[in-house]
Automatic annotation (TrEMBL):
Positions of the Major facilitator superfamily (MFS) profile domain: 1-385
Organism name: Ranatra chinensis
Protein name according to UniProt: Major facilitator superfamily (MFS) profile domain-containing protein
InterPro entries reported for this sequence: MFS_dom, MFS_sugar_transport-like, MFS_trans_sf, MFS_Trehalose_Transporter, Sugar/inositol_transpt, Sugar_transporter_CS
Leader peptide range in chain numbering: none
């Protein structure tokens, strides 16, 4: 909207790239301090704080008449995203029962892509101001609905507030008598490999190029040409595919291990990007390719579906499954900081790579990275589905004793 002149403010391509890239910068700023904040004021009030930041961001987008106010708005939104993607899996994993933890943590990704779809939808059918107002409603609804939620019982126990923790768990479990066992099972000494696993998964998530496709989705279809579907509607289809795939991932995570999902996801993503690169390579030699115009639409949808089914959801699930309470705040913050740092690098460098190497080699590079990730997951990833924290710790320790490897 900003680049096309539909908004009250028109920006240049360079300003547009900064508006896109400043969201991961904000997330990078917010994520490192999130763990300390969550450990100081609690998981609940940290999440409420990020809702306020997101609301302020949309107010600035609605009222701002300067590109610099948009920069500030995107930074605030990024900080909010950095906080929420760090604390949400932390909070969910601390309140969820063992058999539901994986699927519930995966809803972090489902909600993210649902927000993307919501943004695509209101952007396609409403004016700039109306879009901002409709998006502003999301943090308002969140704040009103979440203010009555209980604090994490694990956090309360960590502060020595056992009675408060018991009340929270009783509310969450309907008077379950497994309160003590649940809390004890979450407490064990920090193992370096769990932190390395979380950081590595978050870095892989962004080096797959997902935010390039999300942020530049309409531009990709515009460059691809063909005219089979208008770029805006093609982007809307991609957003819908993300939401559907993210929903199915919550089902798959009940029945399929984390490791197979990561391997399948990165493999399909790599294949999709290789095909997309080949399309742009052929397009550079042929003025018209009507028999191939369907390729970008199919492979981009396949790419985002593969991401949502595995690499999008699994890192957040694993983040909630393997970290003990005493290190969860620090490691979650660090992991999400790495996630958004790599997101900034990837998003900001995309335009330069595209200009220097061409679209074909740019997508091939991301495809190669996905292939490398597939090998990495195959050799180094541990399975966490259906396992307690103690079991995962023992397996990680066993792997270390047998291999001497301190990574993953």
């Amino acid at each position: 909207m900003l680049l096309s002149g539909e908004a009250i403010l028109t920006v240049s391509a360079e300003e547009g790239s900064w508006i896109s890239a400043l969201l991961p910068v904000g997330a990078l700023l917010g994520a490192p301090i999130t763990g300390k904040i969550a450990d100081t004021i609690g998981r609940k009030y940290t999440l409420l704080s990020q809702g306020i930041l997101l609301l302020l961001s949309w107010i600035l987008i609605l009222t701002g008449e300067s590109v610099y106010l948009l920069y500030v708005a995107r930074l605030l939104a990024g900080i909010s995203v950095g906080v929420s993607t760090s604390v949400s899996p932390m909070y969910i994993s601390e309140i969820a029962e063992e058999d539901l933890k994986g699927s519930l943590c995966s809803y972090t990704q489902l909600m993210l892509v649902s927000g993307v779809l919501y943004g695509y939808a209101v952007g396609a059918f409403f004016s700039y101001r109306t879009m901002a107002i409709l998006c502003e409603l999301i943090p308002i609804v969140f704040l009103l609905s979440f203010v009555g939620a209980p604090e994490s019982p694990v956090y309360s126990l960590w502060l020595g507030r056992r009675r408060e923790a018991e009340r929270s768990l009783a509310r969450l479990r309907g008077g379950s008598d497994r309160i003590l066992g649940e809390l004890v099972s979450l407490e064990y000494k920090f193992v370096l490999k769990t932190g390395a696993l979380c950081v590595s998964l978050m870095a892989c998530q962004q080096f797959s190029g997902i935010n390039v496709v999300i942020f530049y989705c309409t531009a990709i279809f515009t460059e691809a040409g063909g005219g089979l579907v208008a770029p805006g509607y093609a982007s809307l289809m991609v957003g819908a595919t993300q939401v559907l795939a993210s929903y199915f991932s919550t089902v798959l995570l009940h029945h399929v291990g984390r490791k197979p999902l990561l391997i399948a996801s990165s493999s399909l993503m790599g294949i999709s990007l290789m095909i997309l690169g080949a399309y742009f390579n052929q397009k550079s030699y042929a003025a018209s390719m009507p028999w191939l115009y369907w390729v970008p639409l199919i492979v981009v949808n396949l790419y985002v579906a593969a991401f949502s089914l595995g690499l999008g959801a699994v890192p957040f699930v694993v983040l909630g499954e393997i970290l003990p309470a005493e290190t969860k705040g620090v490691v979650s913050g660090l992991s999400v900081a790495v996630n958004w740092a790599t997101a900034f690098v990837v998003v900001k460098s995309f335009d330069s790579l595209n200009t220097a190497l061409g679209s074909d080699w740019t997508y091939w590079i991301f495809g190669i990275l996905c292939v490398i990730m597939t090998l990495f997951f195959k050799m180094c990833m541990v399975e966490t589905r259906g396992k307690s924290l103690e079991t995962i710790r023992e397996e990680l320790s066993s792997d270390y004793r047998s291999t001497g490897y301190v990574g993953i």
